[in-house]
Please model this.
Amino acid sequence: MSVLLSKIQDLENSMATQLSSEKSKSKHVVMEDEEMKTQLESARGLIEKLVFENEKLIEKVNNLNGEVTTTDDPMVTNSEADDETSATETTDDRIIESMKKI
Model:
């Protein structure tokens, strides 16, 4: 009978050890989960910021492209360019002239 009681005691101790180990693993998983949530929130904020900045840059590029297209059009006159050069002068010619002044 004492042998059976000893085996029962060993099994109970073994179960308690396993249960403690499982609880420890569970706590570790929960901590990792919380850390991942924090990292995801941080990444989400960074992504939103980058998307916003990208939209602003695209808008600037489009505006600048419109300005370049307008100044390259020989039918559009630039009053400053008219003072110094002809209206049909190309952008390359204007760049060369600007560099000569430097």
In short: Helices lie at 2-72, 79-84, 91-101. DSSP finds three helices and no strands in the chain. The chain has a mean pLDDT of 81.
